Amino acid sequence: MAIKDISPQAPVHVLIISKKHFDDLDSFSDSETDIAGRLLLAANKVADKLKLDRGFRLIINRGEHSGRLVPHFHIHLIGGKRLGPKVVS
User: Which residues belong to the active site?
Assistant: First the structure.
């Protein structure tokens, strides 16, 4: 599923979320790697629907230093403006 982020960091900031719960990237078993791949493809489809043809960024936060706030694996899809080379300033 895809939902808008409640605290967007760009004009387009969407979360791509698996309906099946995974705490983190490490929670995927070898037999579930297809789910991770489908989430990446879903992010690309959402970007196409949102007409992010000039580019977008995908971010996965992992670990205590990442700034992750939600204990459920998700992918941030960010775009709608020139993002520059850095994730944070």
Answer: 74
